[in-house]
Amino acid sequence: MAVATAKNVKSLGAQRAEVSQLTTYDWIALDKRGKRMKGDMAAKNASLVKAELRRQGMNPQTVKERGKPLFGATGSAVKPRDVAIFSRQIATMMASGVPMVQSFEIIADGQKNIRFKNMLVDVKQTIEGGSALHEALAKYPVQFDELYRNLVHAGEASGVLDTVLDTVATYKERTEAIKAKIKKALFYPVMVLAVALLVSMIMLLFVVPVFAQTFKDAGAELPAPTQIVINASEFMKAYWWVVVFGIIGGVVALVMANKRSVKFAHFLDRVMLKLPVIGNILRQSAIARFARTLGVTFRAGVPLVEALDAVAGATGSVVYGDAVKQMREDVAVGHQLQLSMRQTGVFPNMVVQMTAIGEESGALDHMLFKVAEFYEEEVNNAVDTLSTLLEPLIMVILGVLVGGMVISLYLPIFKLAATV
Which key words tag this protein in UniProt (predicted)? Predict the structure, then answer.
């Protein structure tokens, strides 16, 4: 068994090595009418490109390797949005009757990202070699996670792959849309606060020292706020590198601890869920992703226990992920889904009741989709509300940081003018 496993690992490594050797070739050929055609193709060598062109009825004239750019020669990283767009494209083509291999050829030809293009070409070649789609996608577990592959496998087994792919495409689009909206809502306040901190540091390093020297020459007695700002400026001038590296080190340590420590990740997730407004958005988003993911997997024909196993990692929350894992254990021993949901204590009563109705009526997937739609709409409304609430809060913070610093610097001048 160990020998077989080692061989499988070696074989998989060899397959991935072959993918990395795919090269893009620019070609010029004449078609059957003698018309000059040109294009590009990813292959292991130029001979395979010529062979493919001849198979398509063209006479190759020149085939040369595309020159590699100085930067980004291997293409940018494949993002979840790219996978969502690909899912919609392949679902549309297969529903229209286009064969799978030809669908992959068409989609790969239209890809601008060289890395994703080579990936799709390799998947196509693997399928041509006799592998199923979910087996070919398994070579890229980062881009096509276990949930994605399980859904594809279920579609292949039930003979409704085009329908399942359409459902998967909708699922990916909805999930990425929620992520994008939350990131967009948080990006503006984060950038404004970052600029405010940067302006404050510049003032402490370059502006405050000028005022401090003026006050020192005048021999004036400084008010407490002014003295605090001057002391902060002197500290920044002497230890600015400690502050900068301390901020960077703190962020890096936070990210690493969240990735490597389960307890810290659980603690941080619980803290985030308890934050006002933001915590509510994260909670609703996790419920929406849970409901839609479970609904998609259940509708695809995946058994409930296996579906819950795949859903645990798709909620985007450690707390809700642990709750789903506990639900899986309860369902595996015969408990009803709605009962196990109630025991976790993290799902609202409405979600539990709708799940119970779905179980009793035999329309669990339909009710889960209803839950997902409701909470996705709630997330959209909450994000819009968050943007409205953050604007005055940002103004207050800017006023305290920058405005307070400016006022403290002018206090001695106001005091001197009052005594004259």
Answer: Cell inner membrane, Cell membrane, Membrane, Transmembrane, Transmembrane helix, Transport
